[in-house]
Write a structure and sequence with these properties.
This protein is of the alpha+beta class and 304 residues long. It is 20% helix and 25% strand. The protein contains five helices and 15 strands. Strand 1 and strand 2 form a beta hairpin. The protein starts with 5 loop residues before the first helix and ends with a strand. The model has no long low-confidence stretch (mean pLDDT 87).
């Protein structure tokens, strides 16, 4: 039973959170190299935080310098505190028969809904966090144009389709290398229709293969996830906000070296049936900490 093998049950859940269904767009993003601090452990206000040094510092380069002594440029360093998102599953009632032994098949059967729910929510929250709050020079939010002109391309609902020129405009405003684009299902399908510019790159794309690169973006899908939405003013709505008809779902753009992630602890909570006279059943749930975040408000963007 779990109380006899707690480390095996918890270890298996942690392993399944790290493997199985993954968000490809999170792969290769640097894990923040700092220790996690737990505040108010064991209480309702428990949270996990990290302190990250943030440096917005570029050294000026002198070319063919003839002036000495060389001017001193002051190093500027600061630290920010980031609170990891806390994901808690609801308590599941489990019969004694379902908790006998510690085989992986048995553990996975009991805990798969917990693992799936945690993953789904943390991927959705992460993608929302990587989208900019609004359009700016450092955080471009591009509107799909359908090609513009007198008769722009639209889908049956009247939504302007994403075209190759829109990706080129996005790349023009997204400076530097190493950009990823996590496309909405609509935007991915828009590009599928444009065989002239994309040929079979998207049609023949298979899971596990290198992501296609178009217009300088490494393209990713997130079919089972929820993308952030922007209102008519071009502002990102809060995570979990109910969209209205005029909102636009956003494809998310980010430069890999401008964002980071951090995995905190995963906890298992368990009450054995012998200590649970009210229901005479075992009860368990899980708590998982994780965050994905831009370092600063730059190197991120969106297409709406």
């Amino acid at each position: 039973m779990p109380q006899n093998h707690p480390e095996i049950w918890l270890g298996r859940v942690i392993d399944n959170l790290e493997k199985g269904d993954v968000a490809t767009w999170l792969e290769g993003i640097a894990e923040i190299a700092t220790n996690v601090t737990t505040i108010n452990e064991g209480t309702l206000s428990e949270k996990q935080i990290i302190h990250v040094p943030v440096t917005d510092f570029d050294v000026d380069v002198l070319i063919n310098n003839t002036t000495y002594p060389i001017e001193v440029q002051q190093y500027d360093d600061d630290t920010i505190q980031i609170t990891l998102d806390k994901y808690q599953t609801k308590v599941t009632s489990v019969s004694d028969d379902d908790t006998i032994g510690a085989s992986y098949d048995k553990i996975d059967t009991v805990t798969k809904s917990h693992v799936k729910s945690i993953k789904s929510n943390k991927f959705n929250k992460s993608l929302h966090a990587l989208a900019p709050a609004a359009d700016s020079v450092a955080t471009p939010v591009i509107e799909a144009t359908g090609g513009g002109g007198a008769t722009p391309l639209t889908d049956p609902s009247g939504r302007l389709r994403l075209v190759y020129d829109d990706l080129v405009e996005a790349k023009r405003r997204c400076k530097g290398k190493g950009w990823r684009a996590v496309l909405t299902q609509d935007h991915w399908n828009d590009l599928l229709l444009d065989r002239k510019n994309f040929g079979d790159q998207l049609v023949n794309y298979k899971e596990g293969m290198p992501s296609p690169k178009i217009a300088g973006f490494e393209l990713h899908k997130f079919d089972d996830g929820t993308h952030p939405v922007f209102d008519t003013n071009g502002d990102k709505k809060a995570f979990g906000a109910i969209p209205v008809a005029t909102d636009k779902e956003a494809s998310v753009l980010f430069r890999v070296d401008s964002v980071a992630k951090k995995t905190g602890i995963t906890k298992q909570y368990f009450i054995a049936s012998a200590q649970n006279p009210r229901t005479q059943a075992n009860e368990l749930n899980y708590r998982h900490y994780f965050v994905a975040t831009p370092y600063q408000a730059k190197g991120i963007g969106a297409i709406i």
